[in-house]
Design brief:
CATH architecture of the largest domain in chain B: Orthogonal Bundle
CATH class of the largest domain in chain B: Mainly Alpha
Radius of gyration of chain B: 23 Å
Shape of chain B: globular
Number of strands of chain B: 0
CATH superfamily of the largest domain in chain B: MetI-like
Oligomer: heterodimer
Strand content of chain B: under 5%
Number of helices of chain B: 10
Number of strands of chain A: 10
Radius of gyration of chain A: 19 Å
CATH architecture of the domain at 37-61 and 79-83 and 159-269 in chain A: 3-Layer(aba) Sandwich
Largest sheet of chain A: 6 strands, mixed
CATH topology of the largest domain in chain B: MetI-like fold
CATH class of the domain at 37-61 and 79-83 and 159-269 in chain A: Alpha Beta
Number of helices of chain A: 7
Distance between the termini of chain A: 54 Å
Shape of chain A: globular
Largest sheet of chain B: none
Helix content of chain A: 25-40%
Order of helices and strands of chain B: HHHHHHHHHH
Structural class of chain B: mainly alpha
Largest interface: A-B, 23 and 18 residues
Helix content of chain B: over 70%
Strand content of chain A: 15-25%
Structural class of chain A: alpha/beta
Order of helices and strands of chain A: EEEHEEEHHHEHEHEEH
CATH topology of the domain at 37-61 and 79-83 and 159-269 in chain A: Rossmann fold
Chain lengths: 275, 256
């Protein structure tokens, strides 16, 4: 992690709806962060703390209410498909296209010349271990394989930045673990900057170079914890004392915030008239 | 693996039951006409009907009426499909318009529009024009409604994913909206075709100068029961063929 800053976040706040409206929500409060090139940073926090909102602001899908994000020195105002690729939680593959067509289509959207597409799609599918499933439709694949396909689509775009919004959130623990290990191996080879939103303490500790812990809504970054361990991370990293110490630290930080969120939402529920 | 041959056997068995049911109906009809003394004015002998049916086919006397009905159908369907798809697409582009027009169209669609046939005849005359107008009106609603449903409820994640990868408006339409909407829309088009056909033949039996529906009523009024039944069989066969055709086209179009 040397010098060059890939993503510079300055004073970003976001609210949905206008003040006084029923739907008004302050999702994100005055958040600043620098993300170095080649770094993998995990955003972790209680539900509704604005971590996904921040991800969408970085990707140009949401314009922040205040503040700004620069990516490779350029102000983000709209999606930047040449620099930023997304992996969503689930169901973002086009169900009427095969895995290969899905990967190919991403490159059509991005404007990759036809001659390059085939080779790049093959490479990306090979990287995620789906070479033999190129002609399958998403519905024919398991949840884990679908997320691999979505990852292949994002990799084929060859962007400097990858934004992942709980990409393994809907998968079972075992599948999640394997995908996490594979991702760590992939990343050690690729020079990518990654912002990874997750709920899982273990996943954050295992994958991240740094973990940004969010406070309860309206969220902002409460603390940043560095995980000083080279990629690719070995499976036995999970059982090391270092892993446990970091995970425990994250747990302590998060626990209070999650309590706050739960208390607040039950107060809100009690405040409503009985149905 | 639940074997494919099991499935095929199951399908064959239900086909056999369906065929047996139809055969039983014809046998009952035959018995009623020959043994149980039902008057041939109410129920002609099926063998006579079959003979008249061949007669109609051989002489080609059906051609004039068939041409009238099919021309009406083609014109009505063309109007219903083009207006329905365009209107449905335009409405689907805004949540506000969906909220306004979807319940409105669904409401109108549930009214038996054929009640307005006298009005259509007053406006467009007894000839094909009134049948075309009525068929187009009735066919319009399922096509428009399904086009709204197809384009209006495309999974947001897919649209956001496409935008994040840099899809232009044209690419978004061609690669995301259209394939997402097509199966639902085609079902609407098939339904529109079917109701247009039903309403055209129906209205021909009520007020018209020509067409298959007109022919059937004409024969009924002349008490020519066997040829009338033969024409009914003919219309059923034509309607069955047409529906099979559009269903095949629908399946073809949705598969992509």
């Amino acid at each position: 992690m040397t010098g060059e800053i890939a993503i510079r976040i300055r004073g970003v706040s976001h609210q949905f709806g206008e003040e006084g409206e029923a739907r008004h929500v302050r999702a994100l409060r005055d958040t600043s962060l620098d993300i170095a090139r080649g770094e993998l940073i995990c955003l972790i926090g209680p539900s509704g703390c604005g971590k996904s909102t921040l991800l969408n602001v970085i990707g140009g899908l949401i314009a922040p209410t205040t503040g700004a994000v620069d990516v490779f020195g350029r102000r983000v105002a709209a999606p930047m498909p040449r620099d930023i690729a997304f992996v969503f939680q689930e169901n973002a593959l086009f169900p009427w296209n095969t895995v290969f067509e899905n990967v190919n289509l991403g490159m059509i959207f991005q404007g990759v010349p036809r001659a390059e597409r085939e080779a790049r799609a093959q490479r990306a599918l090979e990287a995620v271990g789906l070479k033999d499933f190129a002609q399958h439709y998403p519905a024919q694949l398991s949840g884990g394989m679908r997320q691999r396909a979505a990852l292949a689509r994002a990799l084929s775009l060859e962007t400097g930045i990858l934004l992942m919004d709980e990409p393994f959130g809907a998968l079972d623990e075992q599948t999640r673990m394997i995908l996490g290990e594979d991702l760590s191996v992939l990343l050690a080879r690729a020079d990518k900057t990654i912002v990874f939103v997750t709920h899982s303490l273990g996943e954050a500790t295992f994958l991240a170079d740094r973990v940004a812990v969010f406070s309860a809504r309206p969220g902002t970054i409460k603390k940043i914890i560095a995980v000083d361990e080279p990629h690719p991370r070995r499976p036995d990293f999970v059982t090391s004392a270092k892993f446990t110490a970091i995970r425990n630290e994250l747990y302590a930080l998060l626990h209070d915030e999650i309590r706050k969120t739960v208390v607040e939402s039950s107060v809100n529920a009690a405040g409503r008239p009985a149905p | 693996m639940r074997s494919r041959s099991d499935e095929r056997e199951g399908r064959l068995a239900s086909r056999a039951v369906q065929a047996a049911f139809l055969i039983a109906l014809i046998v009952l009809w035959y018995l009623a006409a020959t043994r149980w003394g039902v008057s041939p004015l109410l129920l002609p002998n099926p063998t006579t009907v079959l003979r008249d049916f061949w007669q109609i086919l051989r002489t080609g006397e059906f051609l004039g009426d068939l041409r009238v009905t099919l021309t009406e159908l083609a014109a009505a369907f063309a109007i219903a499909a083009s207006c329905g798809v365009v209107a449905g697409y335009l409405i689907s582009r805004s949540q506000y318009r969906i909220r306004v027009f979807e319940p409105l169209f669904a409401g109108i669609y549930s009214v038996p529009i054929i009640l307005f046939l006298p009005l259509y005849v007053l406006f467009f005359g007894l000839g094909p024009a009134s049948k075309i107008a009525l068929g187009a009106t009735i066919g319009f609603f399922p096509i428009a409604l399904n086009t709204i449903a197809g384009f209006g409820y495309v999974d947001k994640t897919l649209v956001i994913a496409a935008r994040s990868m840099g899809a232009s408006d044209v690419q978004l339409f061609r690669y995301v909206l259209l394939p997402a909407a097509l199966p639902v829309m085609l079902t609407g088009v098939r339904m529109g075709f079917t109701v247009a056909l039903l309403s055209i033949i129906g209205s021909e039996t009520i007020a018209s100068l020509a067409g298959l529906g007109h022919r059937i009523v004409y024969l009924a009024e002349g008490m020519e029961m066997a040829p009338m039944f033969a024409y009914i069989v003919f219309v059923v066969a034509i309607a069955g063929l047409l529906n099979m055709l559009v269903s095949t086209l629908e399946a073809r179009g949705s598969r992509r």
